[in-house]
Design goal:
Order of helices and strands: EEEHEHEHEHEHEEEHHHEH
Distance between the termini: 27 Å
Structural class: alpha/beta
Strand content: 15-25%
Shape: globular
Number of helices: 9
Largest sheet: 6 strands, mixed
């Protein structure tokens, strides 16, 4: 499932921007489809423009019925009556989505014999100080089993000690959910931490869900700003 809003707050209409001859959302859809990992791939949107663009490109799209604050809510509405076990959320601004990363989050559930994991997601190590400080880059800290402890737009952990190795991870916007966890998310109200940080993954933590993080070395380019789009256009060449 690829949630796709037209009116993004930081970069309106970013999903319809041109990326080497096709809109960003079409590139993302094609990347997810080309992994050949999924029974079905859908773009879930509130926009007639995006819906028509995907269907005209030969893809599958679902129009949201309700207004939604975040991608998880949008996907939950779309899959509520589908007979599925695991749903993968690929952000619409991730045209460099790759098979290896998606396969790694799906593998988490295959080895989860006791079904203790509610979600799986990706993180990539970052060292650039500007990226660590950038509020558009969501950081994550994990325990010794790589379960998420917290997500933040601030640099975490705070580097107070100078004699300890500091490791920073960026959260990549790809999730794999058990359907039950996604349905719970839809009916649970937003709490203070999620509202403060504007990071939907925090709601799962606030309600006790377990998120298994998988480290990847594939960073890709998430298109949040016009500058990101320029980098993506150069990378695509």
């Amino acid at each position: 499932m690829i949630p796709a809003r037209y009116a993004a707050s930081r970069f309106p209409a970013k999903l319809m921007q041109d990326l080497s001859g096709k809109p960003v959302i079409v590139r993302t859809y094609e990347a997810a489809k080309n992994t050949q990992l999924f029974d079905e791939v859908y773009v879930v949107t509130d926009s007639d423009v995006i819906f028509d663009t995907i269907t005209e490109a030969g893809g599958e799209a679902i129009m949201s019925i309700k207004e939604h604050e975040c991608g998880s809510d949008r996907i939950a509405e779309a899959v509520e009556h589908m007979n599925v076990d695991i749903i993968v959320n690929v952000q619409g601004d991730e045209p460099f989505t790759d098979r290896e990363s998606l396969a790694s989050v799906l593998e988490v559930f295959k080895s989860d014999i006791e079904a203790e994991i509610d979600l799986a997601s990706l993180m990539v190590r970052i060292t650039d100080s500007n990226e660590i400080a950038n509020p558009n880059t969501v950081k994550v800290i994990v325990d010794n089993r790589n379960f998420a402890l917290y997500f933040s737009r601030s640099p975490i952990p705070y580097p107070r000690a100078t004699d300890v190795e500091k490791v920073y991870y960026k959260h990549k916007g790809i999730y794999a959910f058990r359907k039950s966890a996604l349905m719970d998310f839809q009916r649970l109200p937003m709490l203070a931490l999620e509202a403060t940080e504007k990071i939907e993954a925090i709601r799962y933590l606030e309600y006790g869900k377990k998120i298994k993080m998988v480290e990847t070395t594939v960073s890709g380019i998430e298109i949040d700003t016009p500058e990101d789009l320029k980098r993506a256009q150069e990378a695509w060449k």
